[in-house]
């Protein structure tokens, strides 16, 4: 794929990307996590930066290097991500919510390591705020991009999420397909738009997916991409 360097579609625009899987602490040595590697979000941050956007990456813990020229803010939990993203939102032009945010967190974080008892036990979980849905309610002129990670009924579930969260574009992702999803260097996605348009992309690297997404973002911002 050709590089976007020098095209400068997003020059003067501020972009915020979230990436990785949040970690919800249980005690000082344990957390609830998920299989997100952060690769898709990091690729998007790189593509936005290459297109000239001032790019902030709000990242849950990952093993990935920060893309050149991107400002990274590290967070661990969904609540930390919520605070950072909502705080920055008013000054941002485009938000891409690629992070796998934990829907629930343990009701209490134990101060000391939880000891085994040898009997079964139950863990109480409480819901985390839905960051993307909150941005959808707050949004003024921002372009808002969401992801849908699904294991069944991809298009139906994705369509529903797009409407519920008031996004301008939803990236639908069947995470069970070979060549797609968590930890994979490639992805197979569809872009869904509120006007009913849909773009199905073939399997390609996550950076190529990110570059396609950047083109659509530029169009949504009213920028000529020819
Ligand atoms: N998301 C978010 N905050 C949450 C949960 C999800 O911002 N607490 C965002 C994700 O970053 C993603 C989109 O919402 O862009 C969809 O996430 P997904 O897990 O696919 O959907 P949910 O709305 O959480 O619904 P469910 O997990 O029940 O399918
Ligand atoms: Ca979820």
Automatic annotation (TrEMBL):
Transmembrane segments: none annotated. The keyword Metal-binding applies. Keywords: Decarboxylase, Flavoprotein, FMN, Ligase, Lyase, Magnesium, Metal-binding, Multifunctional enzyme. Its cofactor is FMN; Mg(2+). Residues 15-226 are annotated as: Phosphopantothenate--cysteine ligase. Binds 1 FMN per subunit. One of its GO terms (cellular component) is phosphopantothenoylcysteine decarboxylase complex. It catalyses: (R)-4'-phosphopantothenate + L-cysteine + CTP = N-[(R)-4-phosphopantothenoyl]-L-cysteine + CMP + diphosphate + H(+); N-[(R)-4-phosphopantothenoyl]-L-cysteine + H(+) = (R)-4'-phosphopantetheine + CO2. Its EC number is 4.1.1.36, 6.3.2.5. It comes from the Bacteria. CTP binds at residues 103, 113, 129-132, 147, 161, 165. GO terms for biological process: coenzyme A biosynthetic process; pantothenate catabolic process. One of its GO terms (molecular function) is phosphopantothenoylcysteine decarboxylase activity. In the C-terminal section; belongs to the PPC synthetase family. In the N-terminal section; belongs to the HFCD (homo-oligomeric flavin containing Cys decarboxylase) superfamily. Catalyzes two sequential steps in the biosynthesis of coenzyme A. In the first step cysteine is conjugated to 4'-phosphopantothenate to form 4-phosphopantothenoylcysteine. In the second step the latter compound is decarboxylated to form 4'-phosphopantotheine. Catalyzes two steps in the biosynthesis of coenzyme A. In the first step cysteine is conjugated to 4'-phosphopantothenate to form 4-phosphopantothenoylcysteine, in the latter compound is decarboxylated to form 4'-phosphopantotheine. This is Coenzyme A biosynthesis bifunctional protein CoaBC. It comes from Desulfosporosinus fructosivorans. The chain holds residues 176 to 401 of 402 of the full protein.
